[in-house]
Amino acid sequence: MSTLEYTVVDAPESGQYEARTPAGEVVGYSAYRRDGDTIVFPHTVVPPEHGGQGIASALAKTSLDDARAAGLTVVPACSFYATYIDRHPEYADLVR
């Protein structure tokens, strides 16, 4: 299997971070909701055909780095985010 090329971008118009291929295909996303100084991540979706390529981790890393830069508190309502933060304690200080 070849490595899928993608870039993670914030798509505020749809309330999600998206992993997009150079052709613009969305191959995974993490939904979010902003509430003042808090950002909630309720779910992350990567279709099975794109699983195992680090897409969900890239979505989490980019969105958590952005949350830190913006001074936001994170609510990891999505189980993937909760597990990701447990495995990457450098993000633990963001969690409410």
From TrEMBL:
Residues 1-96, 9-96 form the N-acetyltransferase domain. GO terms for molecular function: acyltransferase activity, transferring groups other than amino-acyl groups. Coiled coil: none annotated. It holds the Pfam family Acetyltransf_CG. PANTHER family: BSR4717 PROTEIN (PTHR31435:SF10), PROTEIN NATD1 (PTHR31435). This is Uncharacterized protein. It comes from Paraoerskovia marina.
